[in-house]
């Protein structure tokens, strides 16, 4: 599914984002995260071994909510699948996201020994509000 232009523009801003994955028992797991796009897909950067990554390895279905930072009542829900996962460029990507969201280098909250992963998400359904 093609991402609408207004969603792509929002994904390129420091917009609040939540990603839902599915736990082994079928319950949802929700994480606030930074978000990005390559213009075709939604990109999320995570840490190897975190619950979100473990859930996606087992079941690639996700739901993402991205809110407009200027108007939180305006948001998009994206349902889709993780179609790619790579460590290539993961550290550089989190640095770029940190510049976008914090305006500063990434503070490496969990330590510099973490392996960063870029998740590529293909949208199957998009719903916009506001």
UniProtKB/TrEMBL annotation:
<dbReference type="InterPro" id="IPR012349">
    <property type="entry name" value="Split_barrel_FMN-bd"/>
</dbReference>
<keyword id="KW-0560">Oxidoreductase</keyword>
<dbReference type="GO" id="GO:0016627">
    <property type="term" value="F:oxidoreductase activity, acting on the CH-CH group of donors"/>
</dbReference>
<dbReference type="InterPro" id="IPR019920">
    <property type="entry name" value="F420-binding_dom_put"/>
</dbReference>
<feature type="domain" description="Pyridoxamine 5'-phosphate oxidase N-terminal">
    <location>
        <begin position="4"/>
        <end position="127"/>
    </location>
</feature>
<dbReference type="GO" id="GO:0005829">
    <property type="term" value="C:cytosol"/>
</dbReference>
<dbReference type="InterPro" id="IPR052019">
    <property type="entry name" value="F420H2_bilvrd_red/Heme_oxyg"/>
</dbReference>
<dbReference type="GO" id="GO:0070967">
    <property type="term" value="F:coenzyme F420 binding"/>
</dbReference>
<protein>
    <submittedName>
        <fullName>F420-dependent protein</fullName>
    </submittedName>
</protein>
<dbReference type="InterPro" id="IPR011576">
    <property type="entry name" value="Pyridox_Oxase_N"/>
</dbReference>
<dbReference type="Pfam" id="PF01243">
    <property type="entry name" value="PNPOx_N"/>
</dbReference>
């Amino acid at each position: 599914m093609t991402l609408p232009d207004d969603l792509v523009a929002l994904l390129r801003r420091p917009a609040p984002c939540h990603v839902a994955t599915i736990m082994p028992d079928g319950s949802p797991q929700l994480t606030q995260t930074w978000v990005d796009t390559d213009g075709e897909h939604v990109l999320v950067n995570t840490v190897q071994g975190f619950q979100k990554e473990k859930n996606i390895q087992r079941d690639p279905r996700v739901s993402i909510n991205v809110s407009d930072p200027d108007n939180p009542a305006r948001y998009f829900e994206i349902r889709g699948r993780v179609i790619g996962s790579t460590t290539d460029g993961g550290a550089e990507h989190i640095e770029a996201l940190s510049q976008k969201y914090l305006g500063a280098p990434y503070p490496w909250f969990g330590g510099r020994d973490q392996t960063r992963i870029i998740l590529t998400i293909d949208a199957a359904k998009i719903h916009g509000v506001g």
